[in-house]
Amino acid sequence: MWFFARDPVRDFPFELIPEPPEGGPPGPWALHRGRKKATGCPVSIFVYDVKPGAEEQTQVAKAAFKRLKTLRHPNILAYIDGLETEKCLHVVTEAVTPLGIYLKARVEAGGLKELEISWGLHQIVKALSFLVNDCSLIHNNVCMAAVFVDRAGEWKLGGLDYMYSAQGNGGGPPRKGIPELEQYDPPELADSSGRVVREKWSADMWRLGCLIWEVFNGPLPRAAALRNPGKIPKSLVPHYCELVGANPKVRPNPARFLQNCRAPGGFMSNRFVETNLFLEEIQIKEPAEKQKFFQELSKSLDAFPEDFCRHKVLPQLLTAFEFGNAGAVVLTPLFKVGKFLSAEEYQQKIIPVVVKMFSSTDRAMRIRLLQQMEQFIQYLDEPTVNTQIFPHVVHGFLDTNPAIREQTVKSMLLLAPKLNEANLNVELMKHFARLQAKDEQGPIRCNTTVCLGKIGSYLSASTRHRVLTSAFSRATKDPFAPSRVAGVLGFAATHNLYSMNDCAHKILPVLCGLTVDPEKSVRDQAFKAIRSFLSKLESVSEDPTQLEEVEKDVHAASSPGMGGAAASWAGWAVTGVSSLTSKLIRVHPTTAPAETNIPQRPTPEGVPAPAPTPVPATPTTSGHWETQEEDKDTAEDSSAADRWDDEDWGSLEQEAESVLAQQDDWSTGGQVSRASQVSNSDHKPSKSPESDWSSWEAEGSWEQGWQEPSSQEPPLEGTRLASEYNWGGPESSDKGDPFATLSARPSTQPRPDSWGEDNWEGLETESRQAKAELARKKREERRREMEAKRAERKAAKGPMKLGARKLD
After folding, report:
1. Do residues 116 and 171 make contact, with C-beta atoms less than 8 angstroms apart?
2. Is residue 471 a contact partner of residue 484, using CB atoms and an 8 Å limit?
3. What is the pTM of this model?
4. Helix (H) or strand (E) segment spanning residue 82
5. How would residue 691 be classed by pLDDT, with cut points 50, 70 and 90?
6. C-beta separation of 396 from 412 below 8 A
7. How distant is the alpha carbon of residue 523 from its chain centre?
8. In Å, what is the CA distance from 533 to each residue of 488, 560, 565, 640?
9. For residues 476 and 487, is the Cβ–Cβ distance under 8 A?
10. Per the structure, how many domains does the chain have?
11. How far apart are CA 158 and CA 71, in angstroms?
């Protein structure tokens, strides 16, 4: 039945890699690299080929197979699988490298640190202690060829071929018959009289001394060389001399040798060994001990070997986070170890943990993630950012902790290039608008402006046109001086994103108002920005052909490359929020002086209204600018009608388009009657066409109090447009004047990029004003009716006398 026979080697779940065998231990075994067929995981395979006439070696190999299969210890070579046939023996272990080859490679790469050697020797001595003290076994083959190193740099004890029992029930030590191994035998073995008194561990400890000498000095030429310590560290020399002493009785037990070397100042008394010992027992440590360990681990990782960090520390960190509830303390060492990983490994090991961490409600973890985002943002892809990270990060904008709100704002600078259209141009802008208008912390309002200036190039063209001018204009009215500076710098950093019309009609009027700001830093930046914009306008005026080149970025699509100009225009103006800002900065608006109402005389009919005079911005009790109305009830009705939380968000976006259609441009000479309006404490410019930004936050807008004009007066007779004058030039010119089109009256038709085809804002505004006026009149009539009824009752009953009882 020969056709039923199968080749066991072919069916073995592991296969050899077709490479020359590595330098294995002297003896019958050959060490090969291999892999598991199912998963491709790397392994090491020790192969012994049965040869005729080598029965003794075959028995030694089979004994080693049996010992390795039954002995389980962290410091002994880990057995995975095996195959025994009549022709060969296969022993599969974890992927390892012989110590000799490992040391040679490390020397070529710059040398092996004493920290690594101290922990390696600690592991070998601990394995010997386990064999001698717990198993009563003598290894009988401790040497360089019997030690292997795994991918984490851990030293493993192998070479169990000549192991025997210390109790003498299995016979004496087997004969090696290999000169390369017999040179490590202690001198007392040559005395066959048996009169030498020795301990069961004496021979193995002598061989341990030979191993220590070879690790520091290279291959041992002869036993006499052991008398010269050579390069062995001074802290280890006294203990080494005990190992290679001629008297076997004084050679220490492996456990005592470890204790001696771990004493203060000893060779194995260092942070690296302590870290490894803690990691080995981390599962039984108390939570407080784990917290302290992870907090101190980050400081030591720079001195630890890279392989150790990747293959030993990292798995423990991941396990501690997933199963040990370690929390935020693992983040710092986790990201530090992540630097040693390739991009593929980072995606597989770190990113899933980071995504899971963002969904945590632990504030400490959230703020550390935001602070260290720059270490892992390059490994995040756009779908992951938009669907799994950004929805959790935006919760930080609403957090009651100022430090989290500040870090959330700063993190947007890293997330913006990876956000999609909806998250960047809609969701993020909504949160920025609220922070800039309502946040009580001036530094957060300032940093919101700074961040908006830096990510402006990533916004779509329509969003830039709608948001930037209004946002920076709002910042220039902030009572917090650094916010006003940030608003000016925002204009300067994004100068290439504005049309000449916007520069002349919207930006320069705002900047000119800041030239009388109480803060000199604000005034200085305002003058610089004004000179920059004027120079730009003047260059286009001199050569109108430059207009297209100057405005090439205005309608350009969002481009990451455009962000380079704004990347360094301003650092984070105030970073003290993490420490609750600064005591000088953290002035709550509720303690600020109230605004002073400046009366304004009604404008006579037919006379142009005087231009509003800007006054220094002062904090208000609500954290944003408010306008006092004639009637308190009317103001309450108007506020309730304008509350953005109760309105559909899309309809609010349409309000700005209606404002653009209803307002007269200042250059047309149109005048608006303000007889029904009471002046605000701060005279603010009229609402800009880009007030879509402020429409997101109608309740907290800087320009909330300005009502829409109810009527418009025709221009005065003889009034001419600025472009109709001849400013000293020739009557006719071949070149078209670009400023003639800039000062033209804006069209009353809605723009094509408006939120709807119909202009609902005008109707909605008129309806609100009519309702407010009607409500006021009804209240007034009701008040008069109640007063009349009270007067009638008093007249009918007459005055009541003192002490008289009121009857029905």
Report:
1. no
2. no
3. 0.63
4. strand 79-84
5. very low
6. no
7. 36
8. 12, 24, 16, 40
9. yes
10. 3
11. 11
Specify if 240 maps to a domain.
yes
For residue 604, the tally of other CB atoms under 10 A from its CB is 9
581 Rama sector, left if φ>0, alpha if ψ -120 to 50, beta otherwise: left
Structural domain ending residue among the three candidates 45, 72, 96: 96
Q: Does some domain include residue 694?
A: no
Q: Which segment of 261-275, 487-501, 525-539, 577-591 scores lowest on mean pLDDT?
A: 577-591
Distance CA 519, CA 487 (A): 14
415 within a domain of the structure (yes/no): no
Residues 220-237: tens digit of each pLDDT: 888 888 889 989 999 999
Helix (H/G/I), strand (E/B), else coil: 190: helix
pLDDT score of 725 more than 60: no
pLDDT in tens, 94-108: 999 999 999 988 888
Coil, helix or strand for 414? helix
Predicted confidence at residue 799, as pLDDT, reads 58
Q: Where are the alpha helices (DSSP H) in 282-342?
A: 287-300, 306-308, 314-323, 331-338
Residue 339's SS3 state is coil
Map residue 292 onto helix, strand or coil: helix
Higher pLDDT, 150 or 326: 150
Which residues are CB-neighbours of 805 under 8 A, at least 6 positions away?
none
Local structure of 547: helix, strand or coil = helix
Structure-token pair, residue 726: 């001849």
CB atoms within 10 A of CB 795: 8
The whole-number pLDDT of residue 177 equals: 64
Q: What is the pLDDT of residues 208-223, one digit of tens each?
A: 999 999 999 988 888 8
d(CA 135, CA 122): 19
Q: For residue 129, tell me if it sits in a domain.
A: yes
Nearest Cα neighbor of 125 from 253, 264, 277 is 253
Query: Does residue 534 carry a pLDDT above 90?
Result: yes
Straight-line distance from the first to the last Cα atom of the chain, in angstroms, rounded to the nearest whole number: 125
How far, in Å, CA of 142 to CA of 334, rounded? 37
Q: How far apart are CA 450 and CA 409, in angstroms?
A: 9
* Amino acid at residue number 150: D
Residue 166 belongs to what domain range?
98-270
Average pLDDT of 484-499? 92
Residue 352: Cβ within 10 Å count: 13
* Contact by Cβ (8 Å): 616, 695: no
pLDDT, mean over the chain = 74
The domain that holds 459 is classified in CATH as 1.25.10.10
Residue 386 token pair = 């938009």
Over the Cα atoms of the chain, what is R_g? 42
Task: Report the pLDDT value the prediction gives residue 24, as an integer from 0 to 100.
Answer: 58
Nearby residues of 4 by Cβ (< 8 Å), 6 or more positions away: none
